[in-house]
Amino acid sequence: MFTGIIKDVGRIESIGRRDGGLRLRVRHGGAESLEGLSPDESVSINGACQTVVSVDGHSFEVDTVEETLRKTSLGSLSQGSLVNLERALRPIDRLGGHFVLGHVDCSAPVSSVRDLGSSREISVTYPEAFAPYIVPAGSITIDGVSLTVARLEGLRFTVAVIPFTFAHTTINALRAGSTVNLEFDILGKYVARQAATGPGAAAAPVMDEAWLRERGF
User: Fold this and answer.
1) If phi over 0 gives left and psi between -120 and 50 gives alpha, with beta otherwise, what is residue 137?
2) What is the pLDDT of residues 182-194, one digit of tens each?
3) pLDDT of residue 123
4) pTM (2 d.p.)
5) Among 8, 109, 127, 173, which one is most buried in terms of CB atoms within 10 A?
């Protein structure tokens, strides 16, 4: 699990083919939070949870499989590409963003980037299938960065990016037409799933006063 608070921006050192997948070698900038990284740990790369398979100093390698390449933009990375990095959350860490699993739902195009002076507004057009999982003022993860939905207009949402986030993540490289990885809020997914009672599905119990009394509350 992650929080969407980016700890470092890494650089792709090399990309190798492995059957239908890729072996990515990433060099991080020496952030304290990434020190002591070891094989079998999870690291979020542009929002996609990847397992570390080897470590050499400030460089580590991950195997990116076909499913990840299908759902994310990792397949479009090249040598020298910058990526957002976050190490997996420890139970004692501060949860500064929101619950992020690193399970990218889809990739989507940036429709516009606006410079407002003190902040940037980034708008993204997303697939209709994910509409139930996004609400105004809710959380969304873009390339691993935890952001808040400022506006929702049809199948396009807009987030406001503060200067610190803009300066310390790859968000500053986004332009209209850029492709980003999206992970919708897991809490919203569970709520939508509970609300969707298809044919033959049992309705969820109503937690009212009578229900509580029956159970001794």
Assistant:
1) left
2) 999 998 888 888 8
3) 98
4) 0.85
5) 8
